[in-house]
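[step 3/7] inverse_fold.run input=structure_tokens len=106
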């Protein structure tokens, strides 16, 4: 597969940018580990790693590999679990709210 110079420069840029985002996600998880959203942030870090590998392989090889379909499916599954955990945590926090506490919407 023939690649242009711009296409070949996209691969290191994608790796560097997503690695930085992943590091920031891990640092955030270190700060919020004991908070209600610590698990969700940890899952978000895993999604970032999976999407980094997926997009780098996609840029290098093209979209026809089976492993790319597997990685995309795994990333979508982790995103679904992430959203489910956020919804579950929201309901838990709402139920544990003290009686008489004023909220913006009930």
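[step 3/7] decode complete -> sequence:
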């Amino acid at each position: 597969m023939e690649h242009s110079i711009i296409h070949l420069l996209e691969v290191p840029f994608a790796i560097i940018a997503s690695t930085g985002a992943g590091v920031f996600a891990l640092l955030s998880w270190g700060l919020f580990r004991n908070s209600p959203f610590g698990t969700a942030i940890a899952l978000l870090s895993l999604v970032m790693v999976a999407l980094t590998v997926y997009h780098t392989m996609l840029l290098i090889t093209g979209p026809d590999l089976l492993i790319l379909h597997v990685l995309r499916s795994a990333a979508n599954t982790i995103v679904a679990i992430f959203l489910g955990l956020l919804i579950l945590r929201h309901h838990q926090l709402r139920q544990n709210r003290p009686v008489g506490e004023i909220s913006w919407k009930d």
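[step 4/7] annotate
The radius of gyration is 19 Å.
The CA atoms of residues 18 and 52 lie 6 Å apart.
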